[in-house]
Write a structure and sequence with these properties.
Among the domains are: about 40 residues; about 60 residues; about 160 residues, 2-Layer Sandwich (PX Domain), CATH 3.30.1520. About 65% of the residues lie in helices and about 5% in strands. Strands 1-2-3 form a three-stranded antiparallel β-sheet.
Length: about 950
């Protein structure tokens, strides 16, 4: 060390000596002073510029370590207090309040019970809440952007009808399976679902396996979170899994389980139909048609308890008579239930036993042949009978002639209307009309020849036996005479005589159980006391039940005089009974557009009330155009000049079809009607009431002839359809009728698509923008499915109903449906749905206690009550149009489907996927891949 120190000192001395000898002493002094001044200047400048920061830094310096920890804790407390949650979610306060309460309950009941054991820090629950709220906010924005009208009015109806179609096909396949087959209803259902979905989707895994159902819901939630969560939150696996499990376990799983529970659905049906009155006839009809012994036994038990209760009260007094009457009714019901139980236990089918009524056939209504041929229900049963006795060719010939006559009459009438032309181009018009008329007449002749060759030639396999002289005269007319709709009258009379008097035809039909069943369908079995004895009396009484008309099965507002005036009600103004003085009032309740022969007109729906002094009112609806009101105004001005001062909306050259114009006119016309119905005006102008009655009455109104002609044409063609033979007569006849329609250029509905496609796929493009038609079509073809033998007739009936609504209502019904859907999705309604969900799961703010299991007998009684309520919800008009048996069959089929919990799960999953596809249009492929776990689908692919 000493040596190193001596060497360092020597080197330093050597450097200084050399430096001084080289630069001199003065330079060395100046250099040292300059370096010192430089560092002093830098330090001074830094102090001047950063003095405040330096003081703050020095003031914070301390050696007290616990004080630093205190500051850390304070900072943590400040951070905790700064975590605030924005309680705005959807933009609607009423909805946000319900959602916030539900979130409070979810965090309290599903997060804190396990998290409180882990930590007392509330930041994690708060972050979970924020994540869920972010999802709700994003979901709300997506919901607002989606178009819900088509989904609610079209897609849901289509899915429900397709679900019912799969169920019917599954039942048919199960019925056709061998007795030793292990095929179940669910297996057949999901096999058919694969075919309907073109091998892409099968939901058996989520309906039949609870574990796979949970996996499905978890994956479904992941897809929703992918679209709705912020990117950082979605990639945070812990937070995402917590959010997913909360949604699946606290919302989706309980909700799906409850909605799929048949007992809950039955209770919901009863609550939904609580405002519809239940009649004793409806309840008895349900008891007579039920095929479940447990339902009847449960009903018998409750009847026994009620009888015992009434007997304890039967101790004299003013109510003794009432109690005895109630006891008598209950005893009758108890006897009815015992009879049904005995029938089912003996192996007989459920339903009314009509066979005993045949023993007293003289008491039954004897339906005339013309009624049988014109009523759709009677025609269906009569067709089955004629096929059973091998006489169906006569019926086929008669009904095809009816169709040919209706089409020919229409075409000839069109030729007469088109015979006028202008003088300026008389040559061109004459040539064109002559050519078109010649082609039309040739087509009529060809159609008549086709019918003749099908039924009256010796070479035909479908030949019928009638007088040869009649056949020869008919052939001569077809070959030589000008086409006339009366060509086949003579041959048709022979066929009618054959069906009328042959023991195998009408006479034999009246002695079959199906005839008694037909009378029940037409409500002509009200009890023995109401059944008349003589044939003449029976036939004469048919007018009272609206059977003696072309549209016998349709309600009065369709077949009565109201139809020609566009009336939509069923008033009793046509009654001959004089009810005395009355007051009359009218108000326009709706306006819309009607398309007639390619032209669009504005139509106003008028509600008319005629109230008598006795207090009994008559109420009906009519439809009038503006020109009708204008003509009425002109008549009133001519007869009462002093009323010309009343305010009446003037005519417009342009813009008459605009919605604002129609609504403005509706308002002014209502003011005009109120002025006319002013008591002072009516009292001072006695002749005004007859004019108003003629204008507002349901009888024929001259000014509506154009509108009525459309309905006349409608019913002419519809009756051609009703009178034409159904499919069940023989397989070739339906094709023949369609060929006739092509020849005669009469538009018919296309053949139904295969049963393996969705119901919506069978709708033609004409109904795509017509919501009422779509709903009615789905309702007619699926819920109230007619028998297989009446498929052809069903298609024609659908055409009739579709054209009635389109012609009479136009877009009025459309707008009302849209308004109703908008009301159902309004903020207040959505808030009420959330409130109902909250109250069911957290009554009074506390978790709902596990409900006590309902015993089997209670569930069976609920089933009976639900079926009764469901049938009572249908109006009498629907029952009259479809028939009592058809209505009962349709309601029963829907109800039995709702009792299969696994199929209910499938239906709700379809609705959920449809809603998510509507919200997230690009999610369809991902949703489809969720069903890859289905073994049945994998087997079908392989």
């Amino acid at each position: 060390m000493a040596l190193l120190s001596t060497q360092a000192t020597s080197w330093i001395a050597l450097v200084l000596a050399l430096f001084l000898s080289t630069f001199g002493l003065s330079f060395c002094v100046v250099f040292i002073i300059s370096v010192v001044c430089f560092f002093v200047g830098i330090t001074t400048t830094m102090y001047i510029r950063q003095s405040k920061d330096l003081e703050e830094f020095l003031g914070q310096e301390t050696l007290d370590y616990p004080l630093s920890m205190y500051e850390v804790v304070e900072k943590l407390r400040v951070s905790k207090k700064s975590l605030k949650v924005d309680r705005r979610l959807t933009g609607s306060q009423v909805i946000d309040e319900q959602l916030q309460e539900i979130l409070d309950f979810v965090i309290r009941d599903y997060v804190h019970p396990w998290y409180d054991h882990v930590s007392e820090n509330e930041e994690i629950p708060l972050e979970i809440r924020v994540a869920i709220q972010n999802v709700i906010v994003a979901f709300s924005n997506r919901v607002k952007e989606a178009d819900w009208i088509p989904f609610l009015t079209t897609q849901i109806v289509d899915d429900a009808a397709s679900h019912l179609r799969l169920y019917r096909q599954a039942k048919a396949r199960l019925k056709a399976a061998p007795p030793n087959s292990k095929l179940t209803l669910e297996d057949a259902f999901f096999d058919l679902e694969i075919a309907m979905e073109n091998g892409r989707v099968c939901r058996d895994h989520l309906c039949m396996n609870p574990t796979l159902q949970r996996c499905y819901l978890q994956q479904l939630t992941d897809i929703v979170l992918f679209y709705l969560s912020p990117e950082l939150e979605f990639h945070c696996l812990g937070l995402r899994y917590l959010t997913r499990e909360l949604i699946v376990n606290s919302v989706l799983m309980p909700l799906l389980a409850k909605l799929s529970d048949p007992d809950y659905i039955n209770q919901f049906i009863i609550w939904l139909c609580k405002d519809f009155p239940v009649t004793s006839e409806t309840f008895m009809a349900i008891l007579k048609t039920t095929d479940v012994v447990d339902e009847l036994s449960a009903t018998k038990d409750i009847l026994g308890k009620e009888i015992a209760t009434l007997r304890s009260r039967d101790a004299g007094g003013g109510s003794e008579t009432t109690v005895k009457m109630q006891l008598s009714s209950l005893h009758y019901l108890s006897k009815l239930v015992d009879t049904q139980i005995a029938r089912l236990q003996s192996g007989l089918e459920a339903g009314v036993d009509y066979s005993h009524l045949l023993l007293s056939s003289n008491k039954l209504f004897q339906l005339p042949l013309d009624v049988v041929l014109k009523n759709k229900f009677a025609l269906q049963y009569f067709t089955e009978h004629m096929r059973a006795v091998d006489q169906h060719l006569y019926l086929s010939f008669h009904l095809n002639i009816e169709g040919w006559k209706a089409s020919t009459e229409q075409l000839l009438a069109d030729l007469d209307q088109n015979s006028s032309f202008d003088k300026a181009d008389v040559g061109v018009k004459l040539a064109e009309q002559y050519s078109a008329a010649k082609q039309t007449l040739e087509r009529i002749r060809e159609a008549a020849t086709s019918i003749f060759e099908e039924y009256l030639t010796e070479q035909s396999s479908s030949r019928i036996q009638i007088d040869e002289s009649v056949v020869k005269r008919l052939l001569h007319r077809i070959r030589t005479e000008k086409p006339n709709e009366n060509w086949f009258d003579e041959a048709q009379a022979c066929v009618i005589d054959k069906m009328q008097n042959d023991e195998r035809c009408l006479i034999g039909f009246r002695s079959t159980p199906n005839y008694v069943k037909l009378l029940s369908e037409l409500d002509l079995l009200r009890g023995d006391s109401s059944l008349l004895d003589g044939d003449e009396e029976d036939s004469g009484s048919l007018d009272q039940v609206s059977l003696n008309s072309d549209t016998a099965s349709l309600p009065e507002y369709v077949i009565g005089p109201e139809t020609e005036s566009g009336s939509g009600g069923s008033p009793s103004m046509n009654s001959k009974e004089d009810r005395g003085p009355f007051t009359l009032s009218a108000e326009i309740i709706e306006t819309g557009l009607v398309i007639e022969k390619g032209k669009t007109f504005g139509v106003y729906a008028v509600s008319v009330l005629k109230k008598y002094e006795t207090g009994r009112p008559d109420h009906w609806h009519i439809y009038r155009r503006y020109s009708d009101f204008y003509e009425l105004h002109q008549k009133i001005k001519e007869k009462f000049p002093e009323l010309s001062k009343l305010s009446f909306p003037g005519k417009k050259t342009f813009g008459n079809m605009e919605r604002k114009t129609l609504e403005r006119r509706m308002m002014h016309l209502n003011i005009y009607l109120r002025s006319l119905f002013n008591p002072g005006v009516l009292a001072s102008k006695p002749g005004l009431i007859p004019i108003l009655l003629y204008f507002l009455g349901p009888t024929d109104y001259r000014q509506t002839s154009n509108f009525s002609s459309a309905l006349d044409s409608l019913f002419r063609f519809s009756m051609q359809a009703v009178r034409t033979v159904p499919d069940s007569v023989m397989s070739s006849v339906d094709g023949m009728v369609d060929n006739l329609s092509k020849v005669l250029q009469v538009r018919t509905v296309s053949k139904e698509g295969a049963e393996t496609v969705k119901v919506g796929a069978s709708l033609d493009a004409e109904t795509d923008d017509n919501i009422p038609m779509r709903i009615m079509l789905l309702l007619m073809t699926e819920v109230f499915e007619l028998k297989a033998s009446s498929q052809w007739l069903r298609r024609r009936l659908v055409i009739l109903l579709r054209q009635i609504v389109r012609t009479m209502f136009g877009d009025i019904v459309n707008r009302r449906i849209l308004d109703y859907v908008s009301l159902l999705t309004s903020p207040n309604k959505v808030a009420s749905y959330l409130s109902a969900f909250k109250d069911s799961h957290w009554p009074n703010g506390f978790p709902s206690e596990p409900s006590m299991p309902r015993d089997h007998a209670t569930k069976m009684r609920t089933r009976v009550a639900a079926k009764t309520a469901l049938l009572s919800s249908l109006t009498d008009d629907i029952k009259h149009i479809l028939g009592g048996q058809t209505t009962m069959t349709g309601i029963t089929s829907v109800f039995i489907l709702l009792q299969v919990g696994r199929l209910n799960t499938r239906f709700w999953s379809v609705i959920l996927e449809g809603a998510l596809t509507n919200i997230f249009p690009g999610a369809s492929p991902a949703l489809q891949r969720l069903h890859a776990r289905s073994e049945r689908l994998n087997q079908a692919d392989s």
